[in-house]
Amino acid sequence: MPRPINVLLTGGTGGLGRAIAHTFAAQRSIPFHITLLGRNEDRLRNAIADLPKRHGGSTRVHAYHVGDITAQTFWRNIPWSSNSNGADEGNSVQVPTVLVNAAGVVHRSLLPQQTEEQVQETLDVNLKATIWACQAFAQRDLVRARRKIELREEEQGGIEKVVKVVTPNIINISSLLGTHGGLGAAAYAASKAGIIGLSRALAAEYGRLGIRVNTLVPGYIDAGMAETESAEALKRIRGIVPLKRLGTAQEVADAAMFLALNDYANNCVLNLDGGLGATAGS
Ligand SMILES: NC(=O)c1ccc[n+]([C@@H]2O[C@H](COP(=O)([O-])OP(=O)(O)OC[C@H]3O[C@@H](n4cnc5c(N)ncnc54)[C@H](OP(=O)(O)O)[C@@H]3O)[C@@H](O)[C@H]2O)c1
């Protein structure tokens, strides 16, 4: 049984994060171990309970860790564990090879109506938590504890060959509104534009440490926060997307898997918007 590849994920109780966690946990050829980080223990426990647990005939139990992801001290004080069999010990969190920042919040209203609390929460959850998570991912003892992950297969004659190398990487989730703007989303768009700047800067800074940093830029996805749009708004959006539909959470999760496993993907800004971003001016 190969050593598990640890994936740390915020937003794993939401529409997109849940689909990403599920897709990694269901991967048959690569043994991913998922740890969800968030604020609500019940929701985290439920999300973990939903994940597929079987891999290669053995039972794998995923984990969660509760805390305030917007606080730098939370990330600084995570009790990391790097035992090689991937088993969780008490409250400890496995040293991650993949970090997915999928937590997010939106308050839809024109800027003059936004309260200080709404703007603060938007910046804290969408941007600040991602900054602290990225900072923690590259702290010196974690970089040291992380070992090169080589997946091997036994060939005829019992000789093993390396079939895949998984390098440490971070996937941050932005939004089409962060690149194109949109009515009633000023603070959200600002936070999501910040995610792209953060990820690009870290692709240069962390690339030298062997850590890849990439951004997913979903348009309108038929899950999570888009479900809170009115039926009328969703109909209008479907009408203007060139593919005439919303994306699915699975399509976003498949893109996350691509970024996690493609060893030359660094500084990717991968938009999944059905072509909506190309329609400006049309
Ligand atoms: N759905 C879309 O169409 C779409 C499009 C573009 C970009 N995105 C981005 O994709 C990401 C996921 O969105 P989604 O649609 O899955 O949203 P969602 O279903 O509303 O889920 C939001 C997630 O963020 C977590 N979260 C919110 N505030 C938090 C806080 N203070 N501390 C910790 N966790 C917090 C929630 O956890 P709790 O369970 O604790 O609430 C939940 O897991 C977000 O960054 C969003 O901006 C989504």
From TrEMBL:
Gene Ontology molecular function terms on file: oxidoreductase activity, acting on the CH-OH group of donors, NAD or NADP as acceptor; quinone binding
GO terms classed as biological process: fatty acid biosynthetic process
Protein name in UniProt: NAD(P)-binding protein
Native source organism of the sequence: Microthyrium microscopicum
InterPro entries documented for this protein: KR_dom (IPR057326), NAD(P)-bd_dom_sf (IPR036291), Sc_DH/Rdtase_CS (IPR020904), SDR_fam (IPR002347)
Superkingdom classification of source: Eukaryota
Residues covered by the Ketoreductase domain: 5-228
Record's keyword terms, sorted: NADP, Oxidoreductase
Family named by the database record: Belongs to the short-chain dehydrogenases/reductases (SDR) family.
